[in-house]
Amino acid sequence: xxxxxxxxxxxxxxxxxxxxxxxxxxxxxxxxxxxxxxxxxxxxxxxxxxxxxxxxxxxxxxxxxxxxxxxxxxxxxxxxxxxxxxxxxxxxxxxxxxxxxxxxxxxxxxxxxxxxxxxx
Length: 120
Known about the structure:
Elements: E1 12-13, E2 24-28, E3 36-43, E4 52-53, E5 58-71, E6 75-79, E7 83-86, E8 92-96, E9 102-109, E10 116-117
Antiparallel strand pairs: 1-2, 2-3, 3-9, 4-10, 5-6, 5-7, 5-8, 5-9
């Protein structure tokens, strides 16, 4: 068994062309898991990721702030306690509203193809 206190896991900056701005951090909650990727991502105000897809399902669990989750057909505002499922292959993006930071846990099975960015 392993117990992780989220408040004690250091935040590390994420530098990736997938994001629309530099104010993004990641907390690796279970880096030793062989089956799951399980991290907290925090977006600064107004920062989001660009349209992308995954080859497996992605689950987001909102932990703080207000965010937007979007597909090609809709955008929804989400807040703490909301859980979002993006099916494998669905084109989507997610990030903070203009007036709030936004944090979520993301859960995905490990392995597979890298995230496919669909927007410049």
